[in-house]
């Protein structure tokens, strides 16, 4: 690995409030550490707090405990943030910290300093900004606001997370390491960089070596000549020969505990939206054991009806089978195709996944997709039935180039177009493991959320809903919710004991006897109460006697 960083005061400030630290050699117990901090709150305060943040992080002795490095980084960040707040400083600071070990890249960030990864011509933002816009986007996803309302909010850029915000700050961090590959670049930068140039410009610079890339980024920013150019800092890490700890590719056999069988199931959630259209032709089914998303073609009623017919067929098949796929995925698609054909108009794509006998089965027709993840990375995905996919298989395009191709919408196979599908590629079966994840989505989603971004957001999420929302935020910021319909169904594979066998219902005669006995007891209680209340001692005296008895 090779690293290089550069910082500049910019034009609007008289001093540089950014701080940078890069070490490829041990820092206390850690074998390396890379940080960028961006001070806020005026000349002296901002510079002091950013420097203090870096210095105290170096003194935190991270790596002494057996806890995950990212957890230790975040705990140190909270503690130092509390120190800054308690010290009464009017300033604050952002922070982005990166640590690398044999398992991969560990990240902890606070505020809006960012970490990007460049791989294979794609730039992926690995951190989420701790600003009010993130909160607003949560409300957009929840249906409380439109994207336009969020984008026009005057407080959208204000930071909600920063060093100095107290001990209760919520750093953005990986929960599992991100695995780099040879040739990757990491960019750690302050907002003075990415606010001045777009991601395509950053991508061009990051094709260079670490030193050349950092210098080129700052040169491109300063060449813009913005009168309000903020302090700017860029640190670039270049990965050369990477080795990783091995990951198991096959699941281990589930152990029985006390004779209780262990099975796999999926916790799942979904989100579907019309995007910039006035109608939504996507349909989705998130059932027990079977999951599907369809993207209708043919306009308003035709496309929507076709996608709904396909999903309804799969939903009914799931209900009839109790959530266990009784036929092959290809047969399921064939039945859905027949259901769409019966409409007499409209076409649809389909993507579906199912859990059966410890395996996850994934298949598609058209360009809706299924992705399957293990250890935070894609290990299987469906292939589109499209002109672009054919070009990929002929070596004329890379998979990533499908997104920008003019031929992307030219599909070779969809539901409803032929009497019989006659799929040449059979759906894939993956041995499922506890901890695996899957994503089923239409093209309006995967066109704007890249595979590396899916992986990054997955390793930062504790639930399917959190994973889904992280990806949706990327899509909204990229499209302004003005694109195509989009649907994303997210699932986490977990294991659980089978539900114990339900107790048999009592026979009708037994139930009658129980009901009769209860009625007799009630009547008896009423009679006893009436006798008691009508006694010679009277109500008040009876109460007194009862109290005496109790004493």
What would you say this structure looks like, in words?
The chain has 551 residues and is of the alpha+beta class. It has 15 helices and 21 strands. It folds into 3 domains: 2-238, PPM-type phosphatase domain (Phosphatase 2c, domain 1); 262-497, 4-Layer Sandwich (Phosphatase 2c, domain 1); 503-540. It has helices at residues 43-59, 69-86, 132-141, 147-151, 191-194, 199-205, 210-223, 300-321, 329-341, 387-393, 443-446, 451-458, 464-479, 508-533, 539-550; strands spanning 2-8, 18-23, 33-40, 92-93, 95-101, 104-110, 114-119, 122-125, 172-173, 185-189, 232-238, 262-273, 282-286, 290-297, 347-356, 359-365, 369-374, 377-381, 428-431, 437-441, 486-497. The strands form 4 sheets. Strands 2, 3, 4, 5, 6 and 9 form a 6-stranded antiparallel beta sheet that branches. A 5-stranded antiparallel beta sheet has the order 1-11-10-7-8, with helices on both faces. Helix 1 (43-59) packs across helix 2 (69-86). The longest helix is centred in the C-terminal third of the chain and has 26 residues, at 508-533.
């Amino acid at each position: 690995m090779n690293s290089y960083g550069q910082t500049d005061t910019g034009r609007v400030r008289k001093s540089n409030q950014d701080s940078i630290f890069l070490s490829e050699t041990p820092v206390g117990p850690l074998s390396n550490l890379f940080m960028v901090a961006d001070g806020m709150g005026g000349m002296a305060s901002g510079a002091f707090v950013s420097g203090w943040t870096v210095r105290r992080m170096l003194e935190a002795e991270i790596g002494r405990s057996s806890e995950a490095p990212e957890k230790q980084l975040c705990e140190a960040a909270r503690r130092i943030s509390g120190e800054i707040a308690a010290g009464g400083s009017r300033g604050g600071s952002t922070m982005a910290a990166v640590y690398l070990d044999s398992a991969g890249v560990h990240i902890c960030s606070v505020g809006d300093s960012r970490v990007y990864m460049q791989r294979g011509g794609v730039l992926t933002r690995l951190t989420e900004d701790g600003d009010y816009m993130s909160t607003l986007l949560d409300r957009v996803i929840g249906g409380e606001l439109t994207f336009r309302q969020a984008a026009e909010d005057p407080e959208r850029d204000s930071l909600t997370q920063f060093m100095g915000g107290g001990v209760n700050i919520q750093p953005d961090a990986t929960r599992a390491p991100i695995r780099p590959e040879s040739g990757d670049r990491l960019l750690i930068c302050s907002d003075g960089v990415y606010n001045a140039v777009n991601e395509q410009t950053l991508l061009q610079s990051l094709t260079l070596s670490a030193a050349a890339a950092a210098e080129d980024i700052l040169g491109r920013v300063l060449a813009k000549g913005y009168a309000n150019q903020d302090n700017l800092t860029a640190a670039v890490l270049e990965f050369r020969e990477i080795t990783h700890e091995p990951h198991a590719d096959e699941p281990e056999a589930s152990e029985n505990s006390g004779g209780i069988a262990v099975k796999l199931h999926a916790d799942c959630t979904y989100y579907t939206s019309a995007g910039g259209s006035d109608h939504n032709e996507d349909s989705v089914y998130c059932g027990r054991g079977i999951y599907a998303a369809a993207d209708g073609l043919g306009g308003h009623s035709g496309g929507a009806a076709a996608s709904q017919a396909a999903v309804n067929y799969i939903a009914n098949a799931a209900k009839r089978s109790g959530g266990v796929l009784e036929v092959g995925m290809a047969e399921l698609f064939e039945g859905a195709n027949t259901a769409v054909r019966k409409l007499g108009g409209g076409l649809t794509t389909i993507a579906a996944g199912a859990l059966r006998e410890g395996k996850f089965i994934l298949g598609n027709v058209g360009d809706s997709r299924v992705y399957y993840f293990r250890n935070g990375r894609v290990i299987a995905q469906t292939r589109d039935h499209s002109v672009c996919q054919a070009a990929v298989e002929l070596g004329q395009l890379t998979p990533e180039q499908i997104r920008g191709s003019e031929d992307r919408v030219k599909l070779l196979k969809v539901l409803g177009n032929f009497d019989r599908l006659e799929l040449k590629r059979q759906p894939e079966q993956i041995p499922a493991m506890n901890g695996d994840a899957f994503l089923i989505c239409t093209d309006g989603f995967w066109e704007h959320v890249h595979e590396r971004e899916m992986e990054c957001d997955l390793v930062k999420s504790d639930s399917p809903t959190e994973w889904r929302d992280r990806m949706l935020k990327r899509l909204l910021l990229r499209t302004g919710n003005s694109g195509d319909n989009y649907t994303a169904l997210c699932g986490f594979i977990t294991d659980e004991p089978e539900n114990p066998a339900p107790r048999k219902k009592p026979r009708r005669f037994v139930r009658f006897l129980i009901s009769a006995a209860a009625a007799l007891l009630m009547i008896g209680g009423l009679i006893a109460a009436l006798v008691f209340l009508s006694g010679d001692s009277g109500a008040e005296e009876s109460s007194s006697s009862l109290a005496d008895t109790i004493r």
